[in-house]
Amino acid sequence: MKTNYPHLCIEINEKKIIFLVVKYNEELEFTALESKIINSAGFSNGKIFDINILSKTIKDTLDVIEETVGYTFKYVTVVTDQNNINCINVSGYKKLNGSQILAQDVSYILNDIKKIITDKETKYSLIHLFNSAYTLDGENIESMPIGLHGEFYNHHLTCFLTLKNDIRNLKKVLNNCHLNIRKIVLRPFALNMKRLKKNYLNKAECFVHLGKKKSDISIFKNSSFIYHEKFNFGTDIIIKDISKVCSLKFNEAENILKEIDVNNKNIEKEYLEKVYFTDSLFRKISLKHIESIIIARVEEIIELIYKKNVNLSLIIKNEHRMCISLEENHILNNIKKLIRKILEHSVELDFYEGGEKDLTIPCLSAAELTGRGWKTEAIPIVQTKKSLITRIFSSLFQH
After folding, report:
1. Which residues of 294-324 are buried (b: 16+ CB within 10 A; e: fewer)?
2. What's the pTM value of the predicted model, to 2 decimals?
């Protein structure tokens, strides 16, 4: 890592492209030098659909940035928001028979698991690899137990992969801008790593984002990113349901959810005011009826994402914290109170605004990862000789 030189990070998502230029000192701490945010083009639904448009959009802004900072970039760290993320949790083991756990034992386990996954998932590229748990003789160990004696060692890894074709297209776009990829960072990891609380390191932390049309859940444990899942629904289904059941236009139902407090104690005696019927004929609709529709849909969303999600049954077993964000911040208060009722006493809840005030947060996280890495992330290195050989940086064994 070159210090005292500008380094470039770019996030590409379907709404915005975020550019961040940083400079690292000798301690690999960084300072932001320049940032720009532009509207995205050529990228939608987690995929590049027009290489030429996206390339030109990035290149035009990059030229301005390079002139401003007086530096021509050759490498870039990319934050990408892919739809096709494949999350695999897997374990390897070593019979010790009373001997010590050596660095080469762990290296063998890591390389063996990595090879099995890359051989099996031929259409996917490995993006992140996390050391997520260490077990010695049935006991969980907080850090890699190099040097300890035991009978049986189990090493748990979490792998995140994305489609090779998506990565090829991304490389093509950036090559058109005369950039080579230094590191790829998945946006759910970059966005949520800043939200981890140190006092929760021994608990699982669930980050649920309720978007307008899409939602997702990301789970961390002991600082390791261990699970991610996306859902093709969001808070729009609440509005659509109000619209359908009450025979209202979508914009009318949206205003109702935005402006009316459905948690009002006097709601049973109240009716929808005439002012909300902007495009539909006025008629008597009780707010209690609207409340019941909203509650039913919110309960369904929480059940699909969290309460009845079978994929989480083996991942979240113990006490944990859940953080929920909404893309549509204007409905946050209504949804927040309903979710608290639904999940009362079952999990510790935090809420925060999903529409980030600082859109550079994922790029700032990526800059930190590029400079200092992440203590639980294993960095895969591929070397080619007569055959494909993989190994892991020795820095893994310092954690």
Report:
1. beebbeebbeebbeebeebeebbeeebbbbb
2. 0.85
DSSP β-ladder status, 388-392 and 224-231: unpaired
pLDDT digits (tens, 9 = 90+) for 311-364: 887 777 667 888 898 887 777 777 888 888 888 777 888 887 665 567 888 999
| 43-44 and 47-48 strand pairing | antiparallel
217: helix, strand or coil: strand
Identify the structural domains of the chain with CATH numbers, from first to last.
Answer: 6-83+166-191+359-372 (3.30.420.40), 85-161+381-398 (3.30.1490.110), 197-233+308-353 (3.30.420.40), 236-296 (3.90.640)
State whether the Cα torsion 271-275-276-279 is positive or negative.
Answer: positive
What CA–CA distance (Å, rounded) separates 175 from 53? Answer: 14
Q: Which helix (H) or strand (E) holds 168?
A: helix 164-176
The strand pairing partners of 157, in sequence order, are 90, 131
Helix and strand element counts for the chain (H, E): 9, 19
Q: Are 219 and 335 in contact (CB under 8 A)?
A: no
Mean per-residue pLDDT, 286-291: 88
Q: To which H or E segment does residue 93 belong?
A: strand 85-95
